[in-house]
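Entry 14. Structure prediction run on the chain below.
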Amino acid sequence: MPIFARFRALPDKDKVTLVRKLVENGTPDFDYYYLVGLSTVMATLGLLLDSSSIVIGSMLIAPLMYPILGVSLGLVMMSKDISLLDRAIKTLTKSLAVGLGLSVIVAFLLGDNASYLTTEVLARTEPTLLHFLVALVSGAAVAYMLARPEWDAALPGVAIAVALVPPLATIGVGIAAMNATVIKGATMLLFLNLFGIIAIAVFMFLLMNLSEKESIAKSTVRRENEKIENENRIIAEVAEEIVIDRERRTTIIREDIKAE
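Output returned:
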């Protein structure tokens, strides 16, 4: 069919850019977890304050879409090696765990019986087939737009449509409130979104024939791992300099005290 051929006929450089973007932005480094933490805390506060604008803002800074699409990419490229899939699953699992832990803490410390059942919270406790369809549509959109650099400006809108962080934060609110109904409903919504996005993205990536770009993905992973190692080495050196400087200042102060 012509429409399927259109996906296969995407420029090779755009396919390479897509693969590299998914691997790079889904790398579990400090920047990634920092944004996951901030977005989850922001979403939890928005839920407690019953503020849709704050909840929307949390969606815009959340990087969860990348490891989710990374799982889809790993499934497409798993015929010979599952390392890419394993990497994406581990990143996604840790991200969800970090986000859930932070949302529970924020909700427990700052919430009360009234804020645990706001309109924003309750809106994410009744998943329907329509939510699943939204996940399919938004997943198909983001998978295509990432392969078309000229459409990058539309990605924030897709991030809002996907709405991955708010259900996760809602689960945290439900745990803090010890409300089984909230926990169950939000968990179902989160998994509907995850399954829908992963499934449609696998389909899209198969249409694009991204399995042939496995070597690009692996080389990008190696480069990202080297980048993290270099950053950790620099951080360790800076930390050591701070300790040495602190010890030097302490010694000077002690000498000044003795001199007096």
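The chain is about 80% helix and 0% strand.
Filed with the rest of this week's runs.
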